[in-house]
Amino acid sequence: MEAQRPHAVCIPAPGQGHISAMLKLAKLLHHKGFHITYVLTQLNYTHIMQARDFRPLNQAPTFCFETIPDGIPSRETRNSAIDLVEIIFSISKNCSAPFRALIHKLNVASDVPPVSCIVSDAFMSSTTIGAAQELGIPAVVFWPFSGVGSMLHLHSLILRDKVSINNKDDDYIIDWIPGVKSIRLGDIPTSAWSPNPNDPIVDNTISQVSGSYNASAVIFHTFDELEPQVCNALRSMFNRAYTIGPIPLLLKGFPESDEINQIECHMWKQDQDCFQWLNSKTPKSVVYVNFGSMAVTSPDKLVELAIGLCKSMQNFLWIIRPELISGNWSEILPPQFMDAIKGGRRGYVSHWCDQEQVLNHPSVGGFLTHCGWNSIVESMSAGVAMICWSSFAEQGLNRLCCCSEWGFGLEIELDVNGENVESVVRELMEGEKGREVKKKAFLWKERAEAAIGVGGSSFSNLDKLIGEVLLSGCRQFKN
Predict the structure, then answer these.
(1) Could you write out the three-class secondary structure of 173-214?
(2) Weakly modelled stretches of the chain, pLDDT under 50
(3) CATH number of the CATH domain containing 313
(4) 129 and 183: one domain?
(5) Is 266 within the bounds of a domain?
(6) Which residue is catalytic, options 7, 18, 30, 153?
(7) Taking the C-alpha atoms of 66, 71, 73 and 75 in order, what is their torsion angle to the nearest 10 degrees?
(8) Same domain, 228 and 361
(9) What pLDDT, on a 0 to 100 scale, did the predictor assign at position 80?
(10) Which pLDDT score, from 0 to 100, does residue 86 have?
(11) Alpha-carbon dihedral of residues 351, 355, 359, 365, nearest 10 degrees?
(12) In terms of DSSP H, where are the helices of 280-417?
């Protein structure tokens, strides 16, 4: 056992996006010298093991996995939007006692250092903050959203109090949230505000927000140059708030051993053959299409997307995970689409992939995305411009920021049709607006690289977080 090594217990909210973001943060801390215990809820662990054909997770002596029960029965559907309410209630009811028991187990174990800090997803704080307070160790809350997305969620209770529940006007303007320019009610994440006063998802957000105010510190996955006003406002709200991002770029700046690089948590089996197909295409000629881990859509919209991609005459790599639609996609999509992917002639369909690796592949020239924050951060880090088609939660807000505020995305109609898809895909890959957003994407990549470089805002904030907060638990043990 390395007695002097600080020990961080990292726990994400259940959901592939939250798991991926927290895993990258955990790897950052490991590089900085922390022993890591990464905690998965049982349902997520089961799905990850199924994707691995039940091969054990890669881990290391100083980077270990643990699981806690969540009370959710195993099922065929994976963490889709229709299961979200059940997941919320079950986590809230079932995870606190097992998490405390796990911390106790780790603290009496002879082969790991005592737990010196807890790093918790914001949406797990009701499970974790109390355990840290009982031990007298730092508890840090991680918001895996944009700065503005985090700010709006942090104001969910105030939004409920100040906005009439009868207000269904999407164009109603809110101009009183710190650091946020005037914003339409319709652009506020559905997980932060709802006209339904008993919305269980918003209720959960409100209950979890208090955890951020009771935490030792709060991490926001953004960087100062991207969202200067809201980052300043967030810092004014907390005694210790740290903007640290883009985490994928920060992680690249700290090379890990192959042992750590191989640690992944995917709930779907990754397709490696897609990279052979990408290798066969010319630089910047492929549109990558992926709607994330939780979005669902109708067969009609899937058909319109397929028709538009075919008519655009661009190469495309499309990730269609099993739960994106009900039914077999190959039986739903039109003959011209099936012809385009036959033998990988112009298109390739996969069920899941290493998105970061795809976005950094030289043949990828654009990204048609649902606008999840991980996808935006990874696309920005790779300098890849986007086509934005949002689904739910904070994705509409992310679409607005990318297209109107930061300028590295083109918007697609929410009520998607083949003609619109064809037009926007062609514009991104061949048009004048496409050239403009590609320049903006490259510009933001350069700014992000400056933020994570030595002396940059995120690089410095990571060191401050560790020195000012996370190591204080170790100092307590020494004293």
Answers:
(1) EECCCCCCCCEEHHHCCCCCCCCCCCCHHHHHHHHHHHHHHH
(2) 1-2, 76-82, 477-479
(3) 3.40.50.2000
(4) yes
(5) no
(6) 18
(7) -60
(8) no
(9) 45
(10) 80
(11) 30
(12) 299-312, 329-332, 335-341, 355-359, 373-382, 395-400
Treating both helix axes as pointing N-terminal to C-terminal, what angle do 432-452 and 457-465 enclose, rounded to 10 degrees? Answer: 40
Please tell me the pTM assigned to this model.
Answer: 0.94
At 166, which amino acid appears?
N
Check 83, 121, 187, 203 and give the catalytic one.
Answer: 121
User: Which SS3 state, helix, strand or coil, does residue 386 take?
Assistant: strand
The per-residue pLDDT for range 113-158, each reduced to its tens digit, is 999 999 999 999 999 999 999 999 999 999 999 999 999 999 999 9
Decide if 153 is catalytic: no
Looking at the structure, do residues 168 and 222 belong to the same domain, yes or no? yes
Per-residue pLDDT of 18-34, as tens digits, reads 999 999 999 999 999 99
At residue 243, the 3 state secondary structure works out as: strand
CA 17, 205, 9, 28 dihedral sign is positive
Reply yes or no on whether 18 is catalytic: yes
Contact 302, 325 (CB under 8 A): yes
**Both tokens assigned to 347:** 């298109």
Is residue 168, in this structure, part of any structural domain at all?
yes
Query: What is the domain range of residue 364?
Result: 273-448
Q: Which structure tokens are listed for 297?
A: 């859509």
